[in-house]
């Protein structure tokens, strides 16, 4: 087991890793930019190292700065959290080249799954169901139009190196293809330095279902059920729950086994999430995230496991503490992502927190790095906290979420808390009758 690990991240996820390490008796090192000198993760870690100015490219994304921090402090391993360098294969290779351990998948697995076309081909070969689409990249508009006619509209054009909703455009008809194709390529080039795109059949009313998998790197893997992340704005998740309200036990067991078997075959190590579109009883693979997900707490709640602890254990060469037969769902859990944003436009709202009170009580978890007097810097993602609730069933979880939101106090900045209060008044939320387009349509009519 490691004696000391460095967390190459900030905010609530850095705190999450620090807490797991402390319970395991492992010392933690926080890194921070000058803008985060007073951040909670810096205060809570056993040691801290300033790695650069506010710009993430000069601090949290700086390979030399993070490796140097490990050398200075004697940290043996790096936990990347999510975002930043968590899925950067080049960084992982550099970590390994410096005789350090990356707490996550191998560089090769990150590289394969980071390219959408290669990932789809790999998963198809492993028996994972995929969305009908092009075989590889589509180079010309003429080829794109031909594929659109063959598959039938609507279709979606996606940047090969895309993510976070960037480089994705829908062509509802043949007349839309030129604009969608050129825009997707341009966005891919601007955001990822790669203008290659591929085309898939566009499902009209799917849900977004993701399967949590975990491997030991030695050919053994399990699944920890699914999460429904269908409530999204501009392809960004805002409300996640487990188990999914539309998935049967039989469907869960079947797709879960397919996913666990797939990652076992490639000797995958650590936490990963295989994401699907789900429509009319069928699952269609869209991508694999080779890291811990923002929404991992809902899975932890219903299975009673600590995924970060397991990540650290297997990275150090130890066995997983559970097998598939040990994993039984207990109740229902929901997470809402709280952002420092001003409604209705969701514009960033950084600033000083004048008062903060986290909700508590049975089945309530608040993952946040906020505190009274903390100044949210304007340089990073607007996520300031995650409110997670757990109940015996879905109605109890929804009631607990409503109660917890009423207790939460975040003064000094605008937040998205009012959004969730309004959503909880909607019948579709209580019945679970929604898909990936539901929230966008709701926002158009309620927050115009």
Describe the structure in your own words.
With 448 residues, the protein is an alpha+beta fold. The chain folds into 3 domains: 4-87, Rossmann fold, CATH 3.40.50; 132-201, ATP-grasp fold, A domain (Dna Ligase, domain 1, 2-Layer Sandwich), CATH 3.30.1490; 207-446, D-amino Acid Aminotransferase, Chain A, domain 1. 34% of the residues lie in helices and 28% in strands. The protein is globular.
Given helix and strand content, the structural type is: alpha+beta
Helix count, DSSP H or I runs of 4 or more residues: 15
Overall radius of gyration: 21 Å
Strand content: 25-35%
In percent, how helical is the residue content? 25-40%
By CATH reckoning, the class of the largest domain would read Alpha Beta
CATH architecture of the largest domain: 2-Layer Sandwich
Number of separate strands: 22
Biggest sheet descriptor:
8 strands, antiparallel
Q: What is the domain tally?
A: 3
Choose one word for the global shape: globular
User: How are the strands of the biggest sheet laid out side by side?
Assistant: 13-12-9-10-11-14-21-19
Mean pLDDT: 95
List low-confidence stretches: none
CATH topology of the largest domain: D-amino Acid Aminotransferase, Chain A, domain 1
| Straight-line distance between termini | 53 Å
CATH superfamily of the largest domain, called what?
A: ATP-grasp fold, B domain
């Amino acid at each position: 087991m490691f004696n000391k690990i460095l967390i190459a991240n900030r905010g609530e996820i850095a705190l999450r890793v620090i807490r797991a390490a402390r319970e395991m008796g492992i010392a933690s090192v926080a890194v921070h930019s000058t803008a985060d000198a007073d951040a909670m993760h810096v205060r809570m870690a056993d040691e801290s190292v300033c790695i650069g100015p506010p710009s993430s490219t000069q601090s949290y994304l700086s390979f030399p700065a993070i490796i140097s921090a490990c050398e200075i402090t004697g940290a043996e391993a790096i936990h990347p959290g999510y975002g930043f360098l968590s899925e950067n294969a080049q960084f992982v290779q550099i970590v390994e080249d410096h005789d350090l351990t990356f707490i996550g998948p191998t560089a090769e697995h990150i590289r394969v799954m980071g390219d959408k076309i290669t990932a789809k081909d790999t998963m198809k070969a492993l028996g994972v169901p995929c969305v009908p689409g092009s075989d590889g990249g589509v180079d010309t508009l003429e080829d794109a139009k031909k594929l659109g006619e063959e598959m039938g509209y609507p279709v979606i054009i996606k940047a090969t190196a895309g993510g976070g909703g960037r480089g994705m455009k829908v062509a509802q008809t043949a007349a839309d293809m030129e604009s969608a194709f050129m825009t997707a390529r341009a966005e891919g080039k601007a955001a990822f330095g790669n203008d290659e795109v591929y085309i898939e059949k566009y499902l009209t009313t799917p849900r977004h279902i993701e399967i949590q998998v975990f491997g030991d790197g030695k050919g053994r893997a399990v699944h920890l059920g699914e999460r429904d992340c269908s409530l999204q704005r501009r392809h960004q998740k805002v409300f996640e729950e487990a188990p999914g309200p539309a998935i049967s036990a039989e469907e869960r067991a079947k797709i879960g086994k397919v996913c666990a078997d797939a990652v076992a075959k490639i000797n995958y190590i650590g936490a990963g999430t295989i994401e699907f579109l789900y429509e009319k009883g069928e699952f269609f693979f869209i991508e694999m995230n080779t890291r811990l997900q923002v929404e991992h707490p809902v899975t932890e709640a219903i299975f009673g496991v600590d995924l970060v602890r397991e990540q650290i254990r297997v990275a150090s060469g130890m066995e997983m503490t559970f097998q598939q037969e040990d994993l039984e769902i207990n109740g229902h859990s929901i997470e809402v992502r709280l952002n420092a944003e001003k409604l209705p436009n969701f514009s960033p709202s950084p600033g000083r927190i004048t008062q903060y009170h986290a909700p508590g009580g049975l089945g309530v978890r608040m993952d946040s790095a906020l505190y009274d007097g903390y100044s949210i810097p304007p340089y990073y993602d607007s996520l300031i906290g995650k409110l997670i609730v757990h109940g015996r069933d879905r109605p109890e979880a929804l009631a607990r979420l409503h109660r917890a939101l009423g207790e939460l106090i975040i003064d000094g900045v605008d937040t998205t808390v009012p959004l969730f209060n309004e959503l909880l008044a909607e019948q579709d939320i209580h019945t679970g009758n929604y898909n990936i387009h539901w929230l966008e349509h709701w926002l158009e009519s309620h927050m115009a």
